[in-house]
Backbone:
C-alpha cells in the first residue's frame, strides 16, 4: 500500500498535517512495516499521534521506519503525522501481513494552529494508464502528485490534455521521468505551460506510464480542496444493441 503524506511548516508559519485511518477487516491481527520518503526518495521522519492526533506522541526518526503495534482483528486505528521541519511532500510505503482498508485526510493549519481547511482522500492502487477530469472555471487549480514506488526501476509518464467535447489533444505531450522512489508534485497549470492549457473550461488528462505508479490529483478553489478520482478504466463504453430474437 502507498499513500501521499504532506507534513511540515511553511514560511508564513502555517503547516500541513496528514491523518491516515485504517480498518482491519481480517479475522486475525495484522502486522505492518511503514517506510516514509520525501519527494526525492530520501527517508524522512515525522511526529505521529494515534487517535486522530489525540494519543501519545511517537517520533519516527530520520530512517523513516515505523512499525506500529499489530492492528487488532475487526478494529480501526488512525495516525496523524506532523513535522516542525520545512514543508515537504512525500509518501509512505506500507507492507502488511494482510490487506487493510485505508482512508486519509489532509489538514491545513494557520500559524496559531487553528484549522483552516481539510480534505479527505483515498489512497489509490498502482496503475500504468489513468484518466481524470480537470475543471479550470472559477479560478480552480489542479494539483497532481505522481509517485514511482519501485525501488529499482525508473518510470516515465506521458500526460495528454483534452478539452471537453473535442477529440483533438490540446498542445503537446508532457513527459515526467521519475527515478526509483521519487515523487513529482506540481500544478497542472505549470506542467502544461509550454504545451498550452485550458482557460475557464473543463477537460481531462490521460496518463500513460511505462511502469506502475500511484498518483493523487487534487482540485483547489480558494481554500476549498477536494480529491479528483483517477480512473484506470476506459472513459466510456459503447452500449451494445440488443439482438432481436
Residues:
Amino acid at each position: 500500500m502507498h499513500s501521499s503524506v504532506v507534513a511540515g511548516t511553511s514560511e508564513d508559519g502555517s503547516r500541513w498535517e496528514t491523518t491516515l485511518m485504517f480498518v482491519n477487516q481480517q479475522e486475525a491481527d495484522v502486522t505492518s512495516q511503514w517506510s516514509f520518503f520525501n519527494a526525492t526518495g530520501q527517508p524522512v521522519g515525522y511526529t505521529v499521534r494515534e487517535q486522530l492526533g489525540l494519543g501519545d506522541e511517537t517520533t519516527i526518526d530520520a530512517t523513516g521506519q515505523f512499525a506500529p503495534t499489530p492492528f487488532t482483528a475487526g478494529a480501526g486505528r488512525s495516525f496523524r503525522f506532523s513535522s516542525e521541519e520545512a514543508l515537504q511532500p512525500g509518501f509512505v510505503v506500507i507492507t502488511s501481513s494482510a490487506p487493510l482498508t485505508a482512508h486519509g485526510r489532509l489538514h491545513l493549519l494557520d500559524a496559531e494552529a487553528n484549522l483552516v481547511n481539510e480534505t479527505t482522500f483515498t489512497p489509490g492502487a498502482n496503475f500504468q494508464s489513468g484518466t481524470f477530469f480537470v475543471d479550470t472555471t472559477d479560478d480552480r487549480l489542479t494539483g497532481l502528485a505522481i509517485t514511482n514506488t519501485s525501488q529499482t526501476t525508473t518510470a516515465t509518464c506521458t500526460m495528454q490534455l483534452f478539452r471537453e467535447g473535442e477529440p483533438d489533444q490540446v498542445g503537446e505531450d508532457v513527459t515526467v521521468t521519475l527515478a526509483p522512489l521519487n515523487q513529482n508534485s506540481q500544478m497542472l497549470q505549470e506542467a502544461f505551460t509550454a504545451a498550452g492549457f485550458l482557460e475557464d473550461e473543463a477537460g481531462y488528462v490521460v496518463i500513460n506510464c511505462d511502469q506502475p505508479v500511484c498518483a493523487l490529483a487534487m482540485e483547489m478553489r480558494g481554500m476549498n480542496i477536494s480529491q479528483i478520482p483517477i480512473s484506470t478504466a476506459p472513459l466510456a463504453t459503447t452500449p451494445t444493441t440488443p439482438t432481436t430474437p
